[in-house]
Design brief:
13 helices; binds 6-O-phosphono-beta-D-fructofuranose; Rossmann fold; globular; alpha/beta
């Protein structure tokens, strides 16, 4: 039976992390008499042996708190900045796990964390993970906690932007988080009634977007809300990216591989001000004034929604039961109202993108929302 359990939160923070820590911790203590410690700031705290003892008192009163009481970081065990160098600290992490006499380690995180956790599983550690991210892009789980709260914040923002866009007859381009996957922009766009939604999964044609805005104006609505995911890309840039990726796959010489890697990096970084470009292009093409609102980290802050508290508590408490059963090398995924285990081997390195035939995509098209492709 696992009696010494370590917890860590890694990657970008999300509302619901504290609810999940409380869920795992309280259930493990109350049901199974476990002892819990938390590592500060993700894998870095595990590498530096920075711990906090978590007893029921520390785990009380945190259900409604945003952020994570443990702190977090994007540090990866195998690529950690230490003393000005990037080092593989995996062995130190494995050593510290044993030094703390851990029987189990729970890693709460998004896609990157699942990948890092799987690498540590291969080193023999008893790891179980929970899926969190506002992006909802962790594979094999119905939902990640954090997403619902961020969705609510983004929808509220779109609602507010609607009245000002309407009053001033403007285009308001609102940037919503989501670099690889467009769940948040699509969900918020559909729920907030955005007129155009641009997501990474559907490369857009700016002419199509301009035409749909002009058509709304001709029909008596000279204003539009354009919801743009951080990682949305024009079809021209997308074609260049695909070409570079295929050249990289074909490249045999080291020099060629480096060249195509640099090209991919430059296309991606050149896309980082895409939202501003969209606004400028649409202003020039439609003659309507355009304004930009970048929601940024607002979407990750504050108290978790009821749905996120419920999901995080549900998965957290189930996690304590799975630890008791000795289930390791797995992620506790949400499946309907329950929880199911998915091997980390399957989850690691897979991003859950929006399928092009997803019902949210269909619904958006059915109500006349422009998705930038036709
Ligand atoms: O992974 C979640 C996420 O919120 C992404 O949507 C966003 O691109 C990224 O984190 C921002 O990361 P950071 O906190 O490092 O600015």
């Amino acid at each position: 039976m696992a009696n010494h359990i370590g917890l860590l939160t890694s990657g970008g923070d999300t509302p619901g992390l504290n609810a999940a820590l409380r869920g795992v911790g309280k259930a493990a203590i109350k049901k199974y008499g476990s002892q819990i410690i938390g590592f500060k700031d993700g894998f870095r705290g595990l590498m530096e042996n920075r711990i906090i003892r978590l007893d029921p008192k520390q785990l009380s009163g945190i259900l409604t708190l945003g952020g994570t009481i443990l702190g977090t970081s994007r540090d990866k065990p195998h690529k950690m900045p230490v003393g000005g160098k990037i080092l593989d600290m995996t062995d130190v992490i494995v050593e510290n796990y044993h030094k703390q006499h851990l029987d189990a380690l729970v890693c709460l995180g998004g896609g990157g964390t699942q990948k890092n956790a799987y690498e540590l599983v291969k080193k023999g550690l008893n790891i179980i993970t929970l899926p969190k991210t506002i992006d909802n892009d962790v594979a094999y789980t119905d939902m990640t906690f954090g997403f619902d709260t961020a969705l609510g914040i983004a929808v509220d923002a779109i609602d507010r932007l609607h009245s000002t866009a309407h009053s001033h007859h403007r285009i308001i381009v609102v940037e919503i988080m989501g670099n690889k996957a467009g769940w948040l922009a699509l969900g918020a766009g559909v729920a907030g009634g955005a007129d155009t939604i641009l997501i990474p999964e559907i490369p857009y044609d700016i002419n199509m977007v301009a035409e749909s805005i002009l058509s709304r104006a001709r029909n008596g609505s000279p204003f539009s809300i354009v919801a743009v995911a951080e990682g949305a890309m024009s079809k021209e840039k997308y074609a260049l990216l695909q070409k570079a990726i295929s050249n990289l796959e074909k490249a045999e010489e080291k020099g060629d591989r480096q060249k195509w890697k640099a090209e991919i990096k430059s296309i991606k970084s050149g896309n980082s001000n895409n939202t501003m470009q969209v606004a400028q292009q649409l202003e020039a093409m439609t003659g309507l004034e355009a304004r930009v609102t970048i929601l940024g980290h607002l979407q990750r802050g504050g108290t978790p929604s009821a749905a996120d508290r419920l999901l995080a508590t549900r998965l957290g408490t189930a996690c304590a039961d799975f630890i008791k059963q000795g289930q390791f090398g797995v992620m506790v995924a949400s499946k309907g109202d329950g929880a199911e285990l998915v091997p980390l081997e399957k989850v690691a390195g897979v991003t859950k993108l929006v399928p092009l035939d997803h019902s949210w995509v269909d619904s958006a098209r059915s109500v006349g929302t422009c998705l930038g492709d036709f």
